[in-house]
Design a protein that fits this description.
Length: 113
């Protein structure tokens, strides 16, 4: 009967396989988190620059010291600021999900031992 020939793998081998897999996944999560952090830092820098430029332009417009092109520039900066805020929020959500994955991975690794 074939059922009596069934063998299971060595538990130590399974544990080592799981540990390697969890380690690879943890490294990948760290890489993705780093990518998000780099992108977020660059966006935050440009965001601060755009908001500063917009504030100075609005002040200049209010003091009638600029051309009509400045109004167009304020509109462009406003659109950029709004898009940047959306992207920063989405990156924050991605980072949050990765942190949840990291917690789940830690829990799985603990249970595998």
């Amino acid at each position: 009967m074939a059922i009596f020939n069934f063998r299971i793998r060595n538990p130590e081998r399974d544990e080592a396989t799981d540990a390697r897999r969890f380690d690879r996944l943890a490294r990948l999560l760290n890489e993705l988190t780093d990518e998000i952090s780099v992108e977020k830092s660059g966006l935050e820098r440009r965001y601060r620059s755009a908001t500063t430029d917009a504030a100075f332009l609005v002040e200049a417009i209010e003091n009638d010291g600029v051309s009509d092109r400045s109004n167009d520039r304020v509109e462009d900066l406003t659109a950029s600021i709004i898009n940047c805020e959306r992207r920063l929020e989405f990156l924050s959500r991605q980072a949050s999900v990765l942190n949840e994955f990291r917690g789940t991975l830690t829990e799985l690794a603990r249970k595998a031992r």
